[in-house]
Amino acid sequence: MEERQLAAVVRGVVAPRGGARVNLTLLERACAACGISTEYRDVWGKTHRVPADTCRALLAAMGVAAGSDAELEQALAAREARDWRRVLAPVLVVRADAPELAVPVTLPAPALGRRHSWSLVEEQGARHGGEFEPAGLPAIGERRISGAGFVRFALRLPAVPPPGYHRLEIGALDAPGEARAAAPLIVVPARCYLPPGMANGRVWGPMVNLYALRSERNWGIGDYTDLRGVMELAARCGAAVVGVNPLHALFPHDPEHASPYSPASRQLLNVLYLDPEGVPDFAECEPARERLASAEFQARLRAVRGAERLEYRAVAELKFEILERIYTHFRDRHLARGTERAAAFRAFQQAGGESLRLASLFYALQEHLGASDARVWGWRSWPEPYRDPRTPEVAQYAREHVERTEYHDYLQWNAELQLDAVGKRSLELGLRVGLYQDLAVGVDPGGAEAWGAQSLYAGAVSIGCPPDDFNLKGQSWGLPPLLPDQLTAAAYAPIVALLRENMRDAGALRIDHVMGLMRLFWVPAGELPARGAYVSYPFEDLLGIVALESQRNLCIVIGEDLGTLPDGLAERLRAAGVLSYRLLYFEREPDGAFRAPQRYPAQALAAVSTHDLPTLRGFWQGRDLDLRSALKLFPSEELRQRQIVERAQDRARLLVALEAEKLLPPGASVHAIPGPEVTHDFMVAVHRFLARTPCRLLMVQPEDLFGQLDQVNLPATTAVEHPNWRHRLPLELEQWEMDERWRSFCSALNAERGPLAAPAPAPVRAPDAT
Length: 770
Known about the structure:
disordered C terminus; alpha/beta; globular
C-alpha cells in the first residue's frame, strides 16, 4: 500500500486507486454483511489487512455497488429490506437431532393479530399442519423498513420430520386468495456415512490417475474399462478401495485442456475416458469395426499407446472418429425405429434434465462457433446472442441441431453406463469401500456449467489461496466462485445435484478444498493472490447437506483439509464424521519431526503425497525444488536456499522416523549424507510407516510404487512449462500383478493393516429425492 493510502487508513478513510474516498467503517460494514473478511492470517501466522480495492472488487462481483459512500449505504439498506420483507428464509436447514423445530418467521406489524396457518409436506408425501397467532409467539427481532414495522418471531412446530427434503408453507387464514409463503425445509443427519465394520477398520488401496494408466487394450489413455480392471486387481490383492482423479466433463473440442480440476461441468463425465469398443452399439456397427481394423488406424493406435507422454489430441481424434460412426449407427438402427435401447436413451435424457440439455447444447455450440476460429474458446468469447442460454438465437440453434446435441447426450449416456459398471463390479467383488471419487472445488469459467448457471457464479474473480510453503506467491486457480446469496436463493439445489452425481457410483468421495464449505479465498481478476480475501459460506447448512447425501448414497466423505484452516473447522468436520486428509509431508511435530504413526488420527485418510506435490522419489531428490527454481517460481533467492536446506533436514527427519519404527531398509543408515538411494525397499518402508497409523484409509500412488520422479501437476505452471496431467505410468495394467514391486507393496500393506474381514452386506441405497 502506498504511503498516502496507509496514512488515510490510519485516519479511517481509504483513498483507493480510483481516487474516490470511501469511509472504511462503512466499507467494513458492507463486507461483514456480505461475508467478506477484511483480514486473513497466512500459513506463517502473519496477519494481512485486505486492501480496500479488493473489498470493493469483491462487493462488485456480488452485485453490490461500492464505488461511493452513497452507493454502499443504499446497497446495505436494500439488503436489510430484502431480508426483513421475506416471511420465510429462502431455505431452512435443521438437524434431525435438534430438540425442537423453531422456524424464524417475519411478518409486517399489522399482520401480527391475524390468525395464520402452517403446513408441512414431507418428502414422501405425509402432511402436517396447524394454526397460530403471531402476536402470541416470542419475538426475536424488530425493524422499521421505509417507515413500516416488521417483527420476526420463532414458530415452534410439534416435531422435527425425518431427514430429507420437505416443504413448509405459511399464510393468513382470513386471506385465502393471498399467495402463501413457502420454503424448502431440509432436515439433515448429524454425521456422514461410515460402512458397517469400518468403525475400527483400516483398509488400503491404490490412488490412480485414470488418464495415466497403460493397458494392452486401451487407446493411449486410461478408460472406464481399465478402472474396472484396477478394481478387480485390487480385490485380488487385498485392497478395499480404489481412488481416482476427478472424472468430470472437460472440453472435447480442445482435449489439451486437460486439468481434471478445471472442468467444463462437475455434473457430467469425461467422455475421453470412454472405451469405444465397450459401447454396446460398437458390436453392431460394421463401419466402426472396419475403420478400427484398418492398417492406418492401427498404426495410429500403436503410436499413442507407445507414447511416453499422453497425447490428448491424437487420442481424442481416434476415439471421436469411431464414436461418431457408432452414434450414426445407433441413430439409424435404434432411434429411428424406437427400439428398447432407444427407450433407455430417452429415459436417460429425461433423467438428465436441464443440466444435461444445456451441457450438450454448450458442446454443440462450441463446435459450431469455434470451427473456423480457435480463439473462440468458451462461451465468454462467443457472439453476444449465444452467451445467454435462454436467448431466441440459442433456442433456434437447439431446434435446428437436435442431432448434434443428441450426439453429446449419447456420449454422456455411455460414459455413465461404463462408470455404473465399475460401481456394480465393486459391489460384486465385496470391496469394503470400492470406488473413491474426487470432487473438484470449481469449474472453468468458460465451460458448460458456468454458461448454464451464470447467475450462480461471481464474475471477475477467481478462487485461489494465499502464499504458503509450496506456493510462495500464492495461487489464483482461474475458477469462478459460487455466490453465497445465489446458492441460498436456489435452496442449495446445485450442491445437492452435484453431490448426488458424484456419489452415485462411489463408496467414498473426497471434497477438494473442503474449507470451501466454510470459506473460499477470492482473488480479483488481475490482482496478485496475496491481495485476495476470504468470503464465508453457510457452513452448517452445506455440511448438513453433505451428511444427508452421504447417508443416502452410502458414501464415505473425505475432506481435503490441507493448508490454513479456519478456527473450529477441524473439530466440526470431525464431529460430522468427515475423514481428514493427512499427508506424510505435512504431518509434523512442532520441532519439525515427522509425526509417529500412532499420533495420526483414526478418522482420516493417509497418503504420502498428492497430485500437486512431489512424488516420494521427487521429494527425496529435490526435483520439485529444481523445477521451481528453473521456472523462477521462488520470490527470492533467500527463500530458495532456505527450502533447499529444509529439504536436507527433512530427509534426515524421515530417516529418523523410519528408524524409530524399525523400518529402515537393509543397509540404510539414518545419516542423510550421502543418504540412501530411493530404492524400492525404501518406498515400501515409508508406506509401511503410514500403514501403521490408525487412519481408516491409506492410499498409495502408483507413481510412488513404480518410482517415478516427476509429480503429476506443478501448480502455477502451464503445460508448456511442465507436462501437467500428461505423465503416464511405465507398466501396463495387465503386468502389475506379476510385477515384484506391486506384489511386495501388497504384501507389506496387508501385513501392516491386517487381513480383511468379510464385508457386511451392502444396504440398499435410498432413492433420490424429487
